Amino acid sequence: MPQARKKKEPTNIIPFIPDGDFYFTKGVEAFQNRKFDLAIKWMKKAIDAKPKEPLFQCQMSVIYTEIGAYHAANQVLTEVLQNSNYIDCYYLIANNYAHLGLLNDARKYAMSYLEKEPEGDFSEDAKSLLEVIEYDDDEDNEFTLDDEDDLLIYQETAFFHMENQEWEEAIPVLEELMSLFPDYMMAKHDYCQALFFSGNQEKAIEQQLQLLEVEPLSLYSHANLAIFYYETGDLDAYQAHIGVLENIYPMHEQQKLRLAVTFARTGNYQAAYQRFLKLGKGSVKNHPSFFRWYSISAYQVGEPSKALELWQEGCKRHPLLGQESGPWNKE
C-alpha cells in the first residue's frame, strides 16, 4: 500500500544570501579584532560584490596601512580617485606618504584634503599631520596635484617590477619617472640597480658613484655599490661600502629592509638574518624581497624550517615568487 505523503508545511524561512555589505561588516569586525589576514579576505569579497563602492576600497587601504603595506594602500586609493571623487582618499594617501618618509608628498595631499573638506571627518587628523611635517615653502619646487598622481602611479609600477626582479621592465618606467621628476632620488638609485642586473654593470657603477658624490652619506648609494662590487668580484671596494653599512641602523622600516637585503645579497647571511629579525614583519609583507631574502638567510644560517615557512607565506602572498627556485637554491 503506498505510503501517504506528508503535506508540505509552509515555511517563513528566507534563505540568507550574503552581499557586499555583509562582507564589509565582517571585514571591519576582523580588522577591529586585529585579524588582518581575515579582514583582507572579507574586504576582497565585499569589493568583488560591489566593485564601485569606494568605501569598501578605502577600508581595504586602511587595513594595508595598519600592516605597513603603504605602497599597496596607496595603489588602492589611487584607483579610487581615478574612478570617483572620494575626498577621504587624499588624507589617507597623505598618511601613507608620511609613513614612507615622503613628507613633501604627504603635506600636499593633506592640504588638498583640507581644501576640499575643511570640516571633514579627517580634518583634525590632517591638521595634526601638517604640524609634524617639515617642508620647504619654495613654490618653484612644488609639484601640482596632477603631478603627484602621476608620481604615485610611476612609483607603484616601478616598485612592482623591482620587487619581482623584472629589471628590464623596470628600466623604461624609471627612465620616464626620472624625466618627469628629476629631483626624485630614489628613482635614480633604483635605476642603477635595474641597469646592473639587466647587464649594464659598468654604466650602473659609474652612475651610482656620481650619486655618491652628490650625497656621500646616502645609504642607498653604499648599499648598491656594495652589491655591485660584490657581484663583480672587487672585494676591496665591496668591503669599503659594506663596512659603512655595518654601523647604520635606520629608523624607517623600508631602509631597514634595504640593508637586510643588501647583507643577504652579498653573502652576509648572519648579519642579514639578525637585521630581518628586527624588522616589523607586518610593515614589509607587501615586499616579495622580504620573503625572498629572509628565507634565504634563514636557510643559510641553519634554520631550514623557518626558511620553508617564510617561503610558503611569501609564495602565498606573492604568486610570482613561486616561480623562483626557493631558498635552498639561492641565486
End-to-end span in angstroms? 78 Å
Question: Strand pairing plus helix content: what structural class?
Answer: mainly alpha
The quaternary state of the protein chains shown equals single chain
Considering the protein shown, what is the CATH homologous superfamily of the largest domain? Tetratricopeptide repeat domain
How many extended strands? 0
How many domains? The number is: 3
Number of helices: 17
Strand residues, percent: under 5%
* CATH C-level of the largest domain: Mainly Alpha
Output mean pLDDT: 84
Which regions contain 5 or more consecutive residues with pLDDT less than 50?
A: 1-8, 135-143
Radius of gyration: 24 Å
User: Which shape, going by the Cα principal axes?
Assistant: globular
| Largest sheet entry | none
CATH arch. level architecture of the largest domain: Alpha Horseshoe
- Name the helix and strand elements from N-terminus to C-terminus, one letter apiece: HHHHHHHHHHHHHHHHH
CATH topology of the largest domain: Serine Threonine Protein Phosphatase 5, Tetratricopeptide repeat
